[in-house]
Predict the structure.
Amino acid sequence: MKNKSGFTLIELIIVIAFASLALVLFFVQKINIDAMDRDDHRKIAINAMYYGLEEGFYAENGYYPETISEENLTVIDPNLFTDPSGVILGESGCSYLYEAANCEDGKCKEYTLRATLEKEEDYVKKNRN
């Protein structure tokens, strides 16, 4: 009787099954980490808009604008107005939302900034003053 070296079919199936499971777990975790990273970018953008409105626009003008964009909120990086999906604030499907309230002649007393997150509840900032 000859001794044959090598793997049996059962051993190969077990190794392939284990490797497949490890790959599935890796990609599930990668998807979750990527979503959390996009959520972090959304929070950073909302915080930048919030501080730009409070420390920049309101401090200079004494009111909040009806809409925000890179034209009237020049103190922040213009790229922050574009969400991780590539949609600009104010366009349909954007995960950022600016809602002005108590407005008269384009001058508003209140606002709400909101980011729709993937892994958490919406991130909301309201006017300070």
Remarks:
- The longest strand covers residues 96-104.
- The chain is about 40% helix and 20% strand.
- Residues 9-126 form one domain.
- The mean pLDDT is 93.
